[in-house]
């Protein structure tokens, strides 16, 4: 039988009987499904590499094929008639002094779509970066490569049309093709005139895909493309990639349901080697169940990626957990130049026990609403782009983790995680918080504050006559101070409230800062350990050498250093492997403060939030109250539905 012939060849290696049985079963399955010696080598190579060198392994696979089929296969001719777009032999990959790949082959067949999988930190994103830059030995110079990363066009202030016209000049693309590409992706005339930076993550990804359409690249690289996309957009992207007839794709993703829909092949990175599997993701999972088990997945306890959130403590004067601590009153927000307001007459409240999910399609205004609530958008009432009022408890500490918080690390890549946290909180106040638009005075506002008689500084605060009041200093009256009630300050020029907010943040920082949580190495190590970052990595590792998941946990840990009462997260599940996602879910369930979340991960929303607000057409509607929802806090469940099985939970998102 075929199995006996295979065993006869394997016997030459003196393998353990259990290993021999396992390999025989896999090889038999591959051969029965038409596999060649190349597939055999890719599959059994990682298992027996310690017993045989590369040349002998190749010869073994050819021999197995010959004895089972009675002749040679095309792979014995070093690739046969395979049409490779990329064929780089014996490549080596290293990053920050760490070897990621030892001599291995990088081979992409034309018009195939490769899903790249492997544990976090093995070098998936680094490999894509090197491919994009052409910094691979033997990489062909005559092919066009386009790299779409998970954080695309974050800081572009130009409109969509201006951006595409710039692409037209740089790439020589026909203007008609540009318009056709945008329309095909779903851009309306109105959205084409929107600033790129104000697009939601989903629409920015669609814009990136539009550039791929118009530039007609040979090799399209995508790093976590489903991040920031709602369910409908993920489905659209999967269907679109399958239609690409003359483009080879290489996709890094933790979304295995997406890879299952899109990929013709799988490239697995493990043990410093690239291993290729034809036949799609399901075929890969069937051939290598051991590899699937080793990939990032949800565990029962999440213990290996534990996250423990700090206790925020009580707020002064807030005796009831149902008393509002943040409130929007008749809020309308209109981006300058936009044809219509993003938010119209919004009224909403948050209390300490709130656990709210903001739902709605991409571009509906979810992120705008969240940024307004946490104070990350300017309140320039004088320009007419904002009306209404945002009220929050003066001691409320807020942690806001944005979709693109990874940018916080760009200036600190050479630092260790400990040094990064120390530098960010050395004064007890979050340096990143001070950069927010809401608190930074414009040059015009600085000039206004310097006008004689105008308020230029906030010195202290106290409750006087039953009302919160602030001690102020006025330009030209430096020797005197003036107490004014908060109601009076709100009626003055908008810059005055920025001064008030800056002072409140300073007090909040000290309330959670130096005397309660000293910014020492010992305290930081303890805090980072609560987010799954080991002492060794925190003290000795450089941020630039951390994996995407580790960087995200570092940003999360830093944002929550101040022991916030409210944690606001915009797409928090992005860049997290499922194990860490499970740990974050459990931590949020136990958190003793308020939670405000935007997420397209249905299982995450179902486990963390008990209240749902639908953001649509500028309005906000409560579609599930806290009483109606299922309270997730202190839930004894330790796992949640996978993305694939839970998509139906949030059909409206």
TrEMBL record:
Pfam families from the UniProt entry: ABC_tran
SUPFAM superfamilies: P-loop containing nucleoside triphosphate hydrolases
Region of interest (Disordered), residue spans: 630-653
Any coiled-coil regions, as ranges: none
Localization, UniProt: Cytoplasm
GO molecular function, one term: ATP hydrolysis activity
Record key words, sorted: ATP-binding, Cytoplasm, Nucleotide-binding, Repeat
Predominant localisation class: cytoplasm
Gene Ontology CC entries for this record: cytoplasm
Comp. bias regions, Polar residues: 637-646
SMART domains: AAA (SM00382)
Domain ABC transporter: 86-296, 326-642
Protein name: ABC transporter domain-containing protein
